[in-house]
Request: fold
Amino acid sequence: MDPSISVFNGMRMTGIDLVVSVPCINLKDILPMIDDDPSMIHVPVTREEEGVGICAGAYMGGKIPAMLMQNSGLGNSINALASLNKLFHIPLLLIMSHRGVEGETICAQVPMGQLTTSLLDTLDIPYVVPTIDNVEETILHAWAIASEKGRPVAVLLEIGFWEAE
Amino acid sequence: MKRIDAISMIARKAEEKNSLIVCNIGLPSKELHHVKDRAGNFYMLGSMGLSSSIGLGLSLSVPKRHVIAIDGDGSVLMNMGSLATIAHQRPENYLLVVIDNGTYGSTGDQPTATSLGTDLGAVAKGAGIQDVYTTNNEKELEQTLKKVDRGVVIARVGAGNASVPIIGLSPEEIIERFMTECARPSE
Reply:
């Protein structure tokens, strides 16, 4: 199965109906699928922190929100994830292309890539690392944790994930 | 005219239209709470800069309700990209009111860029928002709020905070009653 289609199927299966996005090359094939799906509102944003706010508003309005992003955007979102989501117990799915790990060719991606999981740990944000074979149910499960605990949960899509056939 | 006077006018409009309000952190939320507390007010307690974003996400999710976000000049300056996102989403049911008093009012009235030459109305237009209104006094704001339900209003007011008590609600109480109100069918 194609990795992008699998991620998209997982999002559909979960009932995600509002998606905020900041592009990453690894997400490029998912974004048009969201645009073409009438059950999803797609809100491309300028910066991830803005997306955290939009998703919080969407959740309060009854939506199941997700943010498609690169892990670099985690750094742009930290205050909002703490002083909005954590404070008010607002769930959020962070579907994150995790760059700067095994297989990375761009050196600038490495520092933030290496910091990503420890930043998530510090923020008390659980994360899951799916493979192509389990990504659909992993996304579903991640939202179940997020909504039950009222907090963000990250789905980390590592470089190797996109190379699966 | 001070910020609390603008907030009073917005609260009156919200009552008339049964609007949901997302209110910026700090003194704006305390002033709104003091003027007119209601379940349909979401008081931000942190995440400076995100009032316009929360309001946008909410308005897209409850298209049958009217949504007003109350923001400040310092906060919009912190999240100016939000104006571009609002411009391309163009929600019909969303009014963003930026109360521009030229200062960071909650932290000791340090000047913001709007008192040093930045024109937020021009920024909003430049971001692509079609309906942008700037008001300079009480009468202009009152007339604008009467006729305008969508787009962006930049309400210029004088600096200064009202002496109002803190909000005696927990974050859980604020969001719980707000979400219950959001889920109610529109009248």
Observations:
- Chain A has a mean pLDDT of 97.
- The radius of gyration of chain A is 14 Å.
- Chain A touches chain B at residues 18, 20, 41, 43-47, 49-63, 65, 79-80, 82-84, 87-90 (CB under 8 Å).
